[in-house]
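Q: Hi! First time asking for a complex rather than a single chain. Here are the components, and I think there are two in total. Is that enough to go on?
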Amino acid sequence: MIKIAIEKKLLGANGQMNLRFQAEIKPGELVTIYGPSGAGKTSVIRMLAGLSTPENGKIDVDDELWFDSSKKINLKPQSRNIGIVFQEYSLFPNMTVRGNLEFALEKGQPKAVVDELLNLTELSELQNRKPQLLSGGQKQRIALARALIRKPKLLLLDEPLSALDREMQAKLQDYILQVHQHYKLTTILVSHDITEVVKMSKRVILFEDGKVKNEGTPTDVLQLNHLKLQRADAI
Amino acid sequence: MLDFEPFLLTLKLVTVTTMLLFVLGIPLAYWLVFSRARWKVLVEALVGMPIVLPPSVLGFYLLLLFSPENSVGKFLDHYFDIRLVFTFPGLVIASMVYSLPFMVQPLQAGFRMVPMALSEAAYTLGKTKLTTLIKVLIPNMKTSLLTAVILTFAHTVGEFGVVLMVGGNIPKETRVISVAIYDEVEAMNYHQANIYSIILLAFSFVVLVIVYGINQRMHKVHYLP
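A: Yes, that's all I need. Here is the structure of the assembled complex.
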């Protein structure tokens, strides 16, 4: 079980924002965080990854404290056992596709997992190419495969598909679902695309203006949100 | 007969200086870029000093510093039996100070050019800062590495004031090519001075052509991710 309750003051486009995020995620669950851009979704992901530090709160992953402001615990990203896929791929341009995956191996970890993931994401034929000449969809598959090498305790996907066209998005969503089923990794997917949320998750956390506004099944949460927006328009 | 000694000495001095500065420059530039210490501007200013200072000023203070009459020089002389005035090791240290910004500044630019997201990706894959430096940062800033090495190399070949101050004009020990040329001109040996100068001119030109050639080719195949 992953228990998150974190707070941080952020300076955003609309002045200062008090970001507050809390959630409980069951092992093996794929949960989405849905919200408009500027809501602070990426900040939440960065705090979970240890790339930025919350001011207050606690991140408890299977009874291992990754962050606890009261106990002054703050694990570095290196010690958190996460996998993360960013929107902008962040592949290493000096390494081949295979090199990018092998870089992620832990000391002494057998290389078989590299081939397994290359096959699963259908990248075997591209394995000796450098990533920069590949398409966006191919790049994001590499980034996904790379994030999975260590079988992380928590997989963080920060709007990984928003730079791709619809067709490629649908294809990659299938890949993500497939690897999720295959490895049963606890996964948080950030998205601002309703169809993606509905397709990918059974549970969504609605996140607006730095606050968790609601959570539940996508149909319940998003319909209610939609109605509220309509009512606001009518008034 | 032409004395090749000053030429070989210059080559030796430049190679040793560039290699040592490279080893020193990487951690220094890394620290200057990524440290959050406020006083790093002081270090940055110190590193950049040789760009604005006349070489003779730099040479003068290094001479005082190295002199066995003074604290540092006395300490080295007394405890390690090391003399830095009018010796090759002293020349190397003086050259390193003199060329330091030409190594460090391009490296700083290189570290800044590599997207932060690449380092963060490496950290989230469990890699230490050192591994990230060696496997991610350095391989993705080859152009800056090359620029730093060329500039340091060229700048050290061309130094005169510092060398003359700290090294003097001792054959086979501190008599580098620029000093030798000056020496020949002073003795009205224009022919000899001319030969040295032409060799230096041709050598510098060839080195730069080769290096920029490599640079251009690297640019052609260098794409951002």
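A: The CA atoms of residues 56 and 97 of chain B lie 13 Å apart. Let me know if you'd like any chain examined more closely.
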